[in-house]
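@channel sequence for tomorrow's demo:
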Amino acid sequence: MRVYTTSPLYHYLELIFRTRKLFILSMVICTGAMAAIVLLKPKSFTATAILQLYDDGVGGGGNSDEDMRNKVGSINAKVNLLQIHFKDREFFKKAFENAGLDKDQTEASLEKMIRDAQANVGYSVNGISFLEVSCKSPTQFCVPVLNAVITQYQKAVVAASTKRQVAFLNQMSNFVSLYKDMSDKSEKLLHTFEDKYIQIGRPDPTGAIGEINNLRAQQDAQKGLLDSTQAEINTYTETLQRTSKELELDSVIEERPITDSTDYKALSAEKTRLETKLTDLRKTYTAEDPKVVDAKKQSDELTTKIKAMESQKPDPKRNIKTIRRQINPQYTQLQNYLLASQNRYAFTKAQIATTAHRLEEARKILPLIPEYRSKYGELSTKNAQYRTLRDNLDNEYQRMRVQYDSDYERIKEGIRLVVAPTAEPDAGGKKMLIMLVAGPIMGLVIAFAFSLLTETLDHSVRTPSDAERYLNKPVLAVLPNMRPAKKVTELIRIAVKGDWKDGPPALPPGSRATRRDNS
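structure tokens (generated this afternoon):
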């Protein structure tokens, strides 16, 4: 007796083949649903900027490698500062206020904009010194948001790196202001004392009082001349600003190639960077690795953009207009007048300094008069001390200010914007591909689950093994399920309906009726 058994794999394959239409229909429906979701998904934009960081550490610290990496102004410290500020709500609020994005915004809308920025603005570190900052938004508003965040980040880095210098500068400025006030008060007391005893006509055996009066009158006249000369300088300067330096004679328009444009140079630099990155990745990963494929895809896209720019027609806006110019005689004359006034101003200022020196020498004789020798000496000593302290502190403050300005520019250039942000529409990318691939897979899973469910609920006998298992009888033979010929099927249909027009038609050769008649 033959036992008809089947393996579970054969049973599943038979089930799939028997319900193949269900599988096909489910895959088509799920794929169409996923495609509809992808197409109906709201369009979004992504703005990306690339910053290059430089190590300009200005802070102190230990001698270990960890201390050197985390010192103020280092690349690691700048990245940590960015991570801290991206979690700070006040950072985004100050960025929007400084950029003017809070105008025409209510408190609720500004708060929502801050929350969206915190959720959609991110960064990633590429290599050692490159920082990629990106922002996603349903509109192209992501570009001004990203510009505001980058500007505020630069200010935050400069403020963190110059925190100690700013504190020292403020302290030194307070000291300078304090001793300047003390020096002015002391000098005012000294002049009041001099005026009180010089102008009342007391006996002057040394002639110092008359000399001081003459020098004061001369100094007042020189100060008046200095003020009038300064007014002339201001007038000439304003006239020079309104006067054109050169006169235009004619102009020549010269075409400027597309390769000289800023966008073309930026794309070329970005392509070079990507090709270098791709070369490094290929040394580590295989050609099928997602990182290598993604880098190659970006490089190909940049190559396409560069070729598209090279194939563009010449743009008149890029043309360079060369203008022949001639020096304006009136401008030259005003410059000469201004130079003469400046020389006269410098000469008058030197005369005032000479007069002040002579006045100081004349005042030294005043202590010889017994009436106010003691008081005048005390006031003069205090005034000299205060002026010396004021001048020394002011010189030190100016030196620190120059050093701070130098460090400020150096630290500010430590964060350089390599690629400016531009809004690019999101094409979907990997997510869209995953959703489209997930559609057929989901259809297969649903169809297979439904087939298993119907197979479980169906208790009919389908296979020889089912017959032997459920009926407990041996199977002698299996008749294949063969479809009858088309003509035989048609004859059976006519015979059932009884629709005979010219009598029953002849059966095809080999049928049972034909063999019986022949016998």
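heads up for whoever presents: The radius of gyration is 47 Å.
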